[in-house]
Write a structure and sequence with these properties.
3-stranded antiparallel sheet; 1 helix; Alpha-Beta Plaits; 90 residues; two-stranded antiparallel sheet
């Protein structure tokens, strides 16, 4: 099982979540961060840290945002890992 970064992260890219991840499974894109589904250990440490509530368990992704499951899985392996907090886009 894994967690997924969804729509609310797009164009804001808060990184509060990445500093609490014990396995460093967040990857930084230009507009948002992504969770690598094969690295996530489902610890949920990131969920309460997200100020825009953009992180969901894969079984609880909001209706209409199911495409983010595939997007996280596709893009995370192509990007650089992010482990430190950065200024958000907003």
């Amino acid at each position: 099982m894994t967690h997924v970064v969804c729509q609310a992260c797009f164009a804001c890219k808060y990184t509060d979540c990445v500093v609490v991840c014990p396995v460093e499974c967040f990857y930084e894109g230009e507009q948002m961060v992504y969770i690598h589904p094969e690295e996530c250990i489902d610890c949920e440490a990131c969920v309460p840290e997200c100020p825009v509530e953009a992180i969901f368990h894969e079984d609880n992704v909001p209706a209409g945002q199911e495409g983010f499951l595939e997007l996280n899985a596709e893009l995370a392996p192509q990007l650089e890992v992010i482990t430190e907090k950065k200024d958000p886009l907003v």
